[in-house]
Amino acid sequence: MEETRTTFEIPVGPVHPALKENIRFTFRVEGERILGVDVKPGFVHRGIEYMGMRRNLIQVLYLSERICGICSISHPIVLVQAVEQAAGIEVPPRAQYIRVIVSELERLHSHLLWAGVAAHELGFDTLLHLSWKVREAVMDILEELTGNRVDYAIPIYGGVRRDISPEQMPKVSEMIRYYRGLFEELSDTFLRDPSVEARTRNVGVLEPEEAHELLAVGPTARASGLRKDVRQDWPYLVYGDMDVRALTPEDHGLEVRGDVFDKIVVRLLEVAQSLDLIERCMEEMPDGEITSFPKLPALLAHLKKAEGEGIGRHEAPRGEVIHYVRLEAGQEGPSVWKVKAPTYSNLMPWVPMFEDQEIADIPIIAASIDPCMCCMDRVHVVRSGRPEEWTKQELLRRSWEKTRRLCG
Amino acid sequence: MIVQMIWQSAAVVLGGLLLGLVYKGLDRKLAARMQGRIGPPLRQPFLDVRKLMVKENVVPRDAVPWLFHAAPILALVAAATVLLYLPLGGLAPVLTGRGDLILVLYLLAVPAVAMALGGFAAGTPFSAVGAQREIVMMMSYEFPLAVVVVGIVWRTATLGHSPAFSLAVVSGTPLWSLVGPLGVLGLALLLLCLLVVTPAELSKIPFDIPEAETEIAGGLLVEYSGVNLALFYLADALKTVAMGALVVALFIPYGLAGVFGLEGLVAGIVDVAFFLVKVFAVVFASVTVVRVAMARLKVDQVARGFWIPITTAALAGLVLLILDKAVVG
Amino acid sequence: MILKVLMAQLFSRPVTNRFPAKYMPRSVTGFLAKVGQGKAKLVPPVPVPKGFRGKLAYDRETCIGCQLCIRVCPASVIMFKPETKKIRIHVARCTFCGQCVDVCPVDALAMTEEFLLAAYDRFDPSLIVE
């Protein structure tokens, strides 16, 4: 056909059924084949860091929870780690265990949610409804343990806000049994379905070298065979005692190919891993205090006096989250708060993943990194009503300037 | 004569529309139940059409307006005309003797062509991609479809029935009992191929690539709205009935009236009711179940799938029928 | 095999909770009025667990007006009324973190199990606790 010989541009986004959040791709295509892609983020920038620097630290905690609706325990956990480091606050062991339990529950629900979204992107709505149906069990447990289905409001500086009572333990074990029993069925429907395999095998391949060079994180990197996991590499909380291993498709007896199928495999393996972690935490959890500051006014006073800087990192369901906080004495809020969400690192790997694929693969490749645009959008430059573009050199210069300014 | 024919045609088309929308409702309801959902009420397709009918037609700036508006009408008219050539249960086709199976094949292709034309006429990237995909799809599934029809017609003709390509004759001669074991195997292969072609002809998952909601946002329908979209929707409903009726006419043209020895009006009603059940069974098996049990395929996978395995299967069926003729005579 | 799942689900009751009715009523207020008169039946929502964080409840008498809740509230939900030294809570803005409940020295605040809080006006009397 005449049409297929010419290249033309297809805009996908900022609003498109394949995208759950706003981002703009411009694909250069020849027929069905993608020649190149230009990614433009910045549509859902909310200025959260700016808002945070104008509030006291307890308020910032709940603001950080709203950076991402799905990683709504990951961001607060990182923030409290950073602040605890800066202010020199100890966390009782029981609180550390509870933090791990809730964050693994979050990984469980996030991966199941992703599985549904990915299936929908493939046009397989039955799997979407199936995985979201089974996801309800973990949502119910989260609601049971924290009182909320999302935005759990569990960590606080120096501990956690709610204990897990002995009556709740059997409910969690019940959920673990439910998912273990379901695991075969889930891996059967996802990994042994011929149409899913036809749509995901050798699609959106990210070579290990590319993943390494472009600093991919989380399941995106692990699906390419990189054994990279904050819980394994820089243990925090009680993860060090749990011997967490980064999982790659090799652990399922598969050859690593770095395609979308491998990303499904990795996430399914992590579901099983999270179940094991939750179970182990429940068994090993010691009795004791859940916070080192039972009285909140004392905490507020301590934070106001505190001076210093801290970095927190955590393996969120999508990859590594980093928060940087600097506290100054006499100031209730952080004087600097910097957030790096996992999607920020996984943005560049999109480019090699999209190359030489088909238009039909766009939704599943875009979804394969489990993107969260609003977590990632930390900067958007608008001058006199028009968005501006900055080059890499310009950005580097500006970040050097900022670092110098911060270091005084 | 002519007046009577017009009345009959109008009745068949209106009945077909009604039926098509009911089948769409059933399809949605049953698909929802298979996914563990409640699903929309049965009358939802009727509500959708009523709502679309009062909505504005938006024409894109770069569109070719006359072609853009003509495409849905062409699709609907072609889909309606197909129904007039198909036997509906005990009722003979309204236009008996004025066209044959070859014409039906062409008419079935027209709505797809019209949609592709409309997609190109809309002049936007998504609709252009959708239209290209529709053309590729048509090139893929039309050949196996033609092989199936030719196989059936040829075997019927060799049994001494004429005129060869007449649907009334084909559906009046259930082949299953007239051929030998090789022939039955061949027919089964052809039936399988036709059942695979059906969802492709109707653009349903896994073959809904020209529309592909998550990929190209509705593809060739993306720019259509209001009455035009309603016309495409109705054309789709009619095509669903037509494809079901075609499968029934070619492969399961049995009636119940003869079995129970019924006569007159009762026989007619029983046969029409049985026909509706058969069409429903075909639609359920080849559209509803398939679309909830599979992911959407890619256009090259569909093309390869139809050109190699499905065409081979259809040709094998044809060869088996030829062998059967050589053995049975 | 997916077909087994499909067929099992086809013949079992859908998972969806039919709250408040199987299909969306033509008019929700009309439907609720009918439920009030006993003419229609309301399917209850999924029950909430113990410790659920719902709409705030305020015990006016116990409150000592210390304003700690105002200090910790992340969404500026709580307003101080200097003339009575009591507070007013705008539930429309509430994020249900429960921090005010934790900080209150006299336990004047609590979270209830009420979560159906939709209203047309953010200053609707049902959304203001004082």
Briefly note the structural class of the backbone of chain B: mainly alpha
Low-pLDDT residue intervals, each spanning 5 or more residues of chain B: none
Separation, N- and C-terminal Cα atoms of chain A: 63 Å
- Relative helix content of chain B: over 70%
Whole-number average pLDDT of chain B?
83
Q: Tell me what portion of residues of chain A adopts beta-strand conformation.
A: 5-15%
Low-confidence stretches of chain A: none
The pair of chains with the biggest contact is: A-B, 35 and 31 residues
Envelope shape of chain B? globular
- For the terminal residues of chain B, how far apart are their CA atoms? 41 Å
Percentage of helical residues of chain A? Answer: 40-55%
Rg of chain A (CA only): 22 Å
Assembly state of the chains shown:
heterotrimer
> Main beta sheet of chain A: strand number and arrangement?
3 strands, antiparallel
Strand order of the largest sheet of chain A: 1-2-3
Number of strand segments of chain B: 0
**Main pleated sheet of chain B:** none
Notes on the structure:
The complex is a heterotrimer of chains A (408), B (329) and C (130). Chain A is an alpha+beta fold. Helix content of chain A is 48%, strand content 13%. Chain A is built from 17 helices and ten strands. In chain A, a hairpin with a 2-residue loop joins strand 9 and strand 10. In chain A, helix 2 runs antiparallel to helix 3 and helix 4 (93-121) runs antiparallel to helix 15 (362-368). The longest helix of chain A has 29 residues, at 93-121. Chain A is globular, with a radius of gyration of 22 Å. The N and C termini of chain A lie far apart (63 Å). With 329 residues, chain B is mainly α. Chain B contains twelve helices and no strands. In chain B, helix 3 packs parallel to helix 9 (226-251) and helix 7 (181-201) runs antiparallel to helix 12. In chain C, the strands form two sheets. Chain C has a three-stranded antiparallel sheet with strand order 2-3-5, with no helix packed on it. A two-stranded antiparallel ribbon of chain C has the order 1-4. Chain C has two domains: 2-37, no CATH class; 56-129, Alpha-Beta Plaits (2-Layer Sandwich). By secondary structure, chain C is α+β, with helices and mostly antiparallel strands. Chain C is elongated, with a radius of gyration of 20 Å. The relative contact order of chain C is 0.17. Chain C has helices spanning 2-10, 28-37, 68-72, 99-103; strands at 56-58, 78-81, 86-90, 109-111, 128-129. The A-B interface holds A 1, 3-4, 8-11, 16-18, 31-32, 119-127, 129-130, 133, 193, 195-196, 198-199, 358-363 and B 34-37, 125-126, 128-129, 132-133, 135, 205-206, 208-209, 212-217, 292-301.
